[in-house]
Specification:
Blueprint lengths: L11 H6 L4 E4 L7 E6 L11 H6 L3 E5 L12 H17 L4 E8 L1 H13 L24 E7 L3 H8 L30 H31 L8 E3 L28 H4 L9 E3 H8 L8 H5 L6 E6 L7 H10 L5 E6 L10 H17 L5
Parallel strand pairs: 2-3, 2-4, 4-5, 5-8, 8-9
Antiparallel strand pairs: 1-3, 6-7
Length: about 375
């Protein structure tokens, strides 16, 4: 694990170990190909595809970044370094072909990684901190897979941000004209409401980003070593697509990965409620984050496979299409997984189908060894 610009991991044991952790599932016969499944913060040591891929003759790696289980201080550029460490580790151990699979929030991250591995451009985080990715060791991979993935944390976060919140310290003070939970607005939601709603989301995101930059400027002027502060963001699971199935139509049912939408929107365990100033700019700010999946996919040259679940409540068909359309060459494939939910929970037959599809694609592209 390459060192970050400051202490951004709570665990002293993890910092002192200086490592990122992964689990390797080996095929019965030696494999010269490894599929690496990654996410910015989710624990993928036991990812549901690892065993099925190994059973089909392909070594599979569930990779965690240094931010496993806690994204409150996550820096996307450090996640890129962590992937680079893992890819280098696997290359040194003889893997001739490595395919990087981004699941859920890993889709934008893997695109970011390969873009910087092929042609690095990012010299600092949005806050101006290290790392300089143009000087990092980032071995390119041989293929990219986007699996039930969205185009990037900042992009999807803005699509989910609740614009009805008028007081950042009190989420119960709300603007009824921008409240997707007010039955007078829907569902179904009118095109006019959606237009105002999306504009309200972007405006709120930019207000938060403005306060973040002001606060960082204050810290820069303050004597001492304090460089960052934590803060809370309320209302982060409020995309109208969670309730109106006609928007970005698919086979999904109303609701979220965390349960009923209105509850998930405010519950502490759902997306991105706890963050730091510097992490906000790197991870969640739509105008600042470097992790824009379509932008980076457009800078890659390797074969790409995009798979999406038609019953996914998190990543919608337009997310998959934006990733697929961004790939700048014709060596790409878009595959709907009919009836698939976000993590294929309770769907073993679809896990097998996804594994078969991925391995078949590897063979077709000459990436299986």
């Amino acid at each position: 694990m390459a060192a970050g610009a400051g202490i951004d991991i709570y665990s002293g044991v993890a910092r002192m170990a200086g490592k990122v952790w992964a689990s390797l599932h080996r095929a019965e016969r030696p494999s010269r190909t490894a599929v690496v499944v990654v996410h910015p913060s989710s624990n993928f040591l036991g990812h549901y595809l690892l065993g099925p891929l190994a059973e089909r003759g392909v070594d599979a790696v569930g990779l965690n970044t240094r931010y496993i289980g806690n994204d409150s201080a996550l820096i996307m550029e450090n996640c890129v370094l962590d992937i680079g460490s893992a890819i280098g580790f696997l290359r040194e151990r003889g893997y001739e072909r490595i395919v990087l699979a981004g699941n859920s929030g890993g889709g934008g991250l893997t695109a970011f990684y390969q873009s910087q591995a092929e042609s690095p451009t990012v010299r600092a985080t949005p806050a101006g901190d290290p790392p300089d990715l143009t000087k990092a060791v980032l071995p390119p991979v041989d293929g990219l897979v986007s699996l039930m993935a969205h185009p990037g944390r900042a992009l999807v976060y803005t699509e989910w941000l609740d614009p009805a919140i008028v007081d950042e310290h009190d989420p119960l003070k709300r603007d009824p004209g921008l409240d997707m939970f007010d039955p007078r607005n829907g569902p179904p939601y009118s095109a006019e409401f959606i237009e105002r709603y999306r504009a309200g989301q972007l405006a709120r995101a930019r207000r938060i980003a403005g306060r973040v930059r002001s606060r960082l400027a204050e810290l820069d002027e303050r004597p001492g070593e304090l460089r960052d502060l934590p803060f809370v963001v309320h209302g982060t699971v409020a995309d109208p697509r969670f309730l109106d199935m006609a928007l970005d139509a698919s086979d999904r049912t109303p609701g979220t990965l965390w349960g009923p939408v209105e509850t998930a929107n405010l519950m502490p365990a759902s997306l991105g409620h706890h963050t730091s100033l510097r992490s906000w700019l790197s991870q969640w700010s739509v105008d600042d984050s470097n992790c824009d999946g379509p932008l980076h996919l457009a800078r890659t040259s390797v074969p790409a496979l995009v798979m999406y679940g038609t019953a996914d409540q998190v990543c919608f068909p337009s997310h998959a299409r934006s990733m697929y359309d961004a790939v700048p060459h014709d060596d790409k494939r878009l595959v709907p997984v009919e009836g698939g939910n976000h993590y294929l929970q309770g769907q073993p037959e679809l896990v097998a189908r996804v594994a078969d599809t991925l391995v078949g694609w590897l063979e077709a592209k000459g990436l299986r060894g």
